[in-house]
């Protein structure tokens, strides 16, 4: 949807096809943290997109509010990473990337977060990290696109394949209400998240995108227990403005299965209660899962197909698809419209 928004702003007409309702899959399921977790552990190609997007998000929030009346609640809650065993690497990365990061010792941790569990000894504090209500972002994007005369949104429309002649796609074949329909266009873009590989198998068999399941829990609290996002050993708790608290997340390689499990519930509960022991008084009110689009090299694919000249791809953002989304969309549209790209596009190119 951000790609469509970017294309429309550039004067293009766009037809979106989704086999479900728009904005119901991983982008809905995610935590909405506008930063990679442990950002120094990612390739520079991820960092440059994240930085671009982080500075873009405030204007996106303001524009969506003005256009749709929906506040996506971009809140700079900060991110507190506890007992990371590579803190020195983190600090070097922060200096090199001009990103604010502070060392906090045990006593300072409790001043910042009085309800924090007793076992944590050290923290890395990134005050500028924000979180967003991603379901609201998706809702605002849908409403914003519905307002546009040059956009056609087609939900419950499952793309099954392409009609190709001379390395040029002429149309996509989709199932709508049990019937096959063809949709023509000048150019086609695959951004089908964890399901992208099936659509690229013929054109770009080297694009390896695999589903990585993540489960989340939701609490509703009478009183907030934390001000910032707290993170330890890959698990986090995210405070929302309205008293909800999100707990994430698991990393499971089990194909396209989206079942929520009792085992994940226990694992997430244990981590959340280590971070915030007062959560022992509460039970989660919801549990869900989503499928992240994972790539083998940890970098998304953003660019043109190697085989079919009018096919483009924007997928594989893995754990970072919300933070990277505006930058990924802008880069893809820069490539498609042959504009000067916001960042060097080569690291994201599809494999030969
Ligand atoms: C538990 C969890 C927590 C996360 N937390 C964060 C976070 O805090 N911060 C962050 O930046 N990222 C986070 N992520 C990652 C982020 O959610 C994903 O990287 C991102 O949502 C991927 O976006 P996408 O549009 O590529 O995929 P999706 O949002 O999954 O969308 C893909 C769309 O393609 C459609 N589709 C698939 N196949 C077809 C077809 N054949 N025809 C038509 N339509 C099709 C689907 O219906 C779907 O609507 C999290 C993910 C999970 C699961």
Overall description:
The chain is α+β, with helices and mostly antiparallel strands. It has 9 helices and 16 strands. The protein has an 8-stranded mixed β-sheet, sandwiched between helices. It has a 3-stranded antiparallel β-sheet with strand order 6-7-8, with no helix packed on it. Strands 9-16-15 form a 3-stranded mixed β-sheet. Helix 3 (about 45-70) crosses helix 6 (about 135-145) and helix 3 (about 45-70) crosses helix 9 (about 320-335). The two termini are about 25 Å apart. About 40% of the residues are buried. Bound molecules: flavin-adenine dinucleotide (FAD).
Short description, anyone?
With about 350 residues, the protein is of the alpha+beta class. Helix content is about 30%, strand content about 25%.
* Strand residue percentage: 25-35%
Structural class: alpha+beta
Annotation, overall tally of beta strands: 16
Question: What is the overall number of helices?
Answer: 9
Mean pLDDT: 97
Helix content: 25-40%
Taken in chain order, the helices and strands follow as: HEHHEHEHEHEEEEEHEEEEHEEEH
Low-confidence stretches: none
Net shape: globular
Q: Report the major sheet.
A: 8 strands, mixed
Terminal CA distance reads 27 Å
Instruction: Name every ligand kind in the structure.
Output: flavin-adenine dinucleotide
**How are the strands ordered across the major sheet?**
3-4-2-11-12-13-10-14
Supply Rg: 21 Å
């Amino acid at each position: 949807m951000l790609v469509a928004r970017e294309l429309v702003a550039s004067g293009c007409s766009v037809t979106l096809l989704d086999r479900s309702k728009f904005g119901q899959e991983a982008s809905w399921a995610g935590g909405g943290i506008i930063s990679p977790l442990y950002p120094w552990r990612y390739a520079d190609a991820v960092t440059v997109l994240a930085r671009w997007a982080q500075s873009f998000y405030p204007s996106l929030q303001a524009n969506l509010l003005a256009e749709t009346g929906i506040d996506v609640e971009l809140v700079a809650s900060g991110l507190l990473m506890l007992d990371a065993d590579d803190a020195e690497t983190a600090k070097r990365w922060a200096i090199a990337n001009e990103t604010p990061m502070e060392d906090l010792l045990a006593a300072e941790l409790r001043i910042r977060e009085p309800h924090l569990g007793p076992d944590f000894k050290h923290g890395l504090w990134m005050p500028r990290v924000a979180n967003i209500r991603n379901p609201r972002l998706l809702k605002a994007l849908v409403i914003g696109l519905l307002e546009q005369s040059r956009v056609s949104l087609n939900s419950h429309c499952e793309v099954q394949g392409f009609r190709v002649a001379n390395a040029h796609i002429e149309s996509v074949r989709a199932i709508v209400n049990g019937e096959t329909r063809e949709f023509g266009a000048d150019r086609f873009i695959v951004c089908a998240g964890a399901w992208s590989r099936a659509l690229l198998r013929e054109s770009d068999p080297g694009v390896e995108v695999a589903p990585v399941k993540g489960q989340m829990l939701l609490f509703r609290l009478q009183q907030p227990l934390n001000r910032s996002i707290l993170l330890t050993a890959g698990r986090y708790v995210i405070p929302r403005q309205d008293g909800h608290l999100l707990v994430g997340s698991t990393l499971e390689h089990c194909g396209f299965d989206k079942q929520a499990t009792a085992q994940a519930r226990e694992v997430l509960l244990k981590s959340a209660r280590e971070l915030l022991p007062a959560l022992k008084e509460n039970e989660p009110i919801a549990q869900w899962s989503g499928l992240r689009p994972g790539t083998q090299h940890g970098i998304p694919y953003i660019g043109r197909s190697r085989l079919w000249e009018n096919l483009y791809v924007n997928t594989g953002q893995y754990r970072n698809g919300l933070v990277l989304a505006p930058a990924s969309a802008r880069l893809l549209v820069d490539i498609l419209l042959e504009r000067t790209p916001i960042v060097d596009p080569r690291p994201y190119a599809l494999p030969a």
